[in-house]
Amino acid sequence: MNGIREEVVDSAFEAPADGLEQVVAAIVADVLSFDRVGRSDSFYDLGGTSLQAIRICARIEQRTGRTAYPEWLFTHDVLSEFVAHLESEGEDGR
């Protein structure tokens, strides 16, 4: 990991709430090269790009079997909101 979350995010760290949030937070942290990502952190605040969104979604599908689309990450950029949307769409919804 190269980045320390607190160097780019001003808000206090809020740990991921459940299993899926924890998995997605770990994936986002790994792809964006941060030490950790909290449930209230924004993909944009962490400097996420469209290519990284594609990588994140591909890893989510590999690890969980759930389909995730990059546009979901763009419109639901806060981790907890993205995971809630991912859960509400089921495994193959759009």
TrEMBL record:
SUPFAM superfamilies linked to this entry: ACP-like (SSF47336)
Q: Which residues form the Carrier domain?
A: 15-90
Q: Name one Pfam family in it.
A: PP-binding
Q: Which residues form a coiled coil?
A: none
- Recorded protein name is Carrier domain-containing protein
Organism encoding this protein: Streptomyces similanensis
Q: What is the lineage of its organism?
A: Bacteria, Bacillati, Actinomycetota, Actinomycetes, Kitasatosporales
